[in-house]
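User: quick one, fold this
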Amino acid sequence: MGVDELGREIQSFVDGHVAWDDEQPPDVTSDRSLAAVAELVREFHDLTAGTAMAGEHEVVCHNDLSPKNTVYRDLGLGLRPVAILDWDLAAPGARIHDVAHVCWQYVRLEPAVSDVASAARRVRLICDAYGLTDRSLLLETILWWQDRCWRGIEAAAEAGIPAMIRLRERGAARSVRDAYQWVAAQREALQSALR
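Assistant:
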């Protein structure tokens, strides 16, 4: 919301449930919440399209969409996403970048997935709810994000950045690299659901 006289950021507070832990109430991981996340991202993108903030790009992208950056609140129908947090990586970009990130993070495209068909259906649900008509580059963009992420953690850790060293020590780079390999191996099954 700005900066005060001491150079500190002024922030607001959004009341609700942040999906920080891996285990979440069923409402958070439901198809309805997943569709609502995609609709929320679409609304944000549409608000930024054609603005000075987007510049020559399609929209402003969040670039770190995940359940851990989402606030859920019960609006009478169970927990639903109402706000997105952590905008420090926001930048001009292409819509598909955020949609791919949503697919990766909210569906949790990783080796722990036991039902590839269900994951593929949920990826399609995100695309449908967002209104993404051209899906030809979606899986390539998911893989791009995953590759970029694990390599970025490794490079930053090698450069001595403490936060990235801690992430690497907790296995984050390995986990994302494993997710990348899983998506690459399941690419055809996932792609078939988008056709």
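User: anything notable?
Assistant: DSSP finds eight helices and five strands in the chain.
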